[in-house]
Amino acid sequence: FGHSAATDGTYIYSFGGKSDSSTYLDEFLRCHLTTHSCETPLVTGPSARAFHSVSMAGTTMYIFGGEFSDGSTVDKLDDLWTIPLPPTTWTEEVPALSTAAPSSAYHAAVKYGTKLYFFGGNDVIVDTVWAWESTRTSYGNEMIAFVDGGGGNDQITDTANGFVAAGFLSGDDIVVSGSASNDGAYTILAITAGTIDVATGSLTDEAAGAAVTIRTGYAGSTIAFDVGDTVTDLITDSANGFVAAGFQEGDDIVVSGSASNDGQYTILSVDAGTIKVAEARLTAESAGASVTLTELDWAQRTKPASSPLGRRAPTAVVMNDGTDDRMYLFGGQSGGVGINTLWAYKLSDAAAAVENLFTWEQMTSIPSQ
Question: Cα–chain-centroid distance for residue 50?
């Protein structure tokens, strides 16, 4: 018991749980839906746990959190793992530019678009939505060094030769973090497996050793900020680079380098030259500063005034009713008392009513839990 499972349409995949003797398990099991035969794939991955979440998207399975006990204390977990199906290799998705969601068991999780959404759980009852982005290019290790090229291009080097495999391309805007003296935004001029060329005069010499992370982002001096209307504020780019940089509705971004608008925002809508965010978040600021927009991997969403109570053991599903897509959250327990309310978290809106995105609405109460 306490395991979690999901299906890809051919197999049911199950991980973890507790035995009858309350031993926490790290068993990864798959059972064929037609033949009913079961097997344990020989792949090493997450540690033993129970009451974690499992989500499925296409041919990828995701596991987050849970709890484990060595018999003396119970520890809640905050690690996120992915595995392609059919199963080959587990990968731990280590946070790159932000802090992961709190250690949690008994939470709800759903996959929508390129994101995982989480709500609820304990030890500390979580009463906000957390989102994790699955597609942004991120790479890091302790073998990355920085070279001042003198009169030529400066270079970021990697003795593990992982840059191309990580998905970086010439022309990408990247953000470096974790270095001793070279954190910042750069544009890739040329790239090989072990070398990224950036503009002359950008870097200072720095040997490998620090845990450096490189992540795609977008930077420029053409970015401005506008207080917009009574519905949304605007981030604008006269170079019209937002869509080409890969930003999408629902992305959680961090602005840095501005005079007065640095901070975290959720994109309500985006086109080539305009990003809309929630109203009353920005102050007017003209272009000119070198501003960087970086998408977060983990993000805690701003809690709307009307929101469900924090709870443990709720259920959640994503449904499309033909007008908009929502995450529906039902039930759970808080303070030892069962909860029988149904809430909907708006994930998209065909009517383009962006002011309603990423807000909660309480639906008709249901009489039993």
Answer: 22
Indicate the average pLDDT of the chain. 89
Cβ(294)–Cβ(279) under 8 Å? no
Name the residue among 181, 185, 139, 188 with its Cα closest to residue 163.
Answer: 139
Fold of the domain built from segment(s) 138-219: Elongation Factor Tu (Ef-tu); domain 3 (2.40.30)
Residue 111 main-chain phi, psi, to 5 deg: -110, 130
SS3 78: coil
Where is 163: in which H helix or E strand? Answer: helix 163-166
**pTM to 2 decimal places:** 0.82
Whether 149 and 198 have beta carbons less than 8 Å apart is answered as no
pLDDT digits (tens, 9 = 90+) for 96-120: 667 788 889 999 999 998 899 999 9
* DSSP bridge partners of 198: 154
Domain residue extents for the chain: 4-94, 103-134+300-369, 138-219, 221-286
How many whole angstroms separate alpha carbon 110 and alpha carbon 195?
A: 38
Question: Tokens 């978040």 identify what position?
Answer: 281
User: How far lies 328's CA from each of 97, 122, 218, 354, in Å?
Assistant: 29, 20, 33, 19
CATH of the structural domain 221-286, one choice from 1.10.3470, 2.40.240, 3.30.980, 1.25.40: 2.40.240
Would you call 164 helix, strand, or coil by DSSP? helix
pLDDT band for position 12 (50/70/90)?
A: very high
Closest C-alpha among 211, 156, 209 to residue 187:
156
Q: 16, 46 in Cβ contact below 8 A?
A: yes
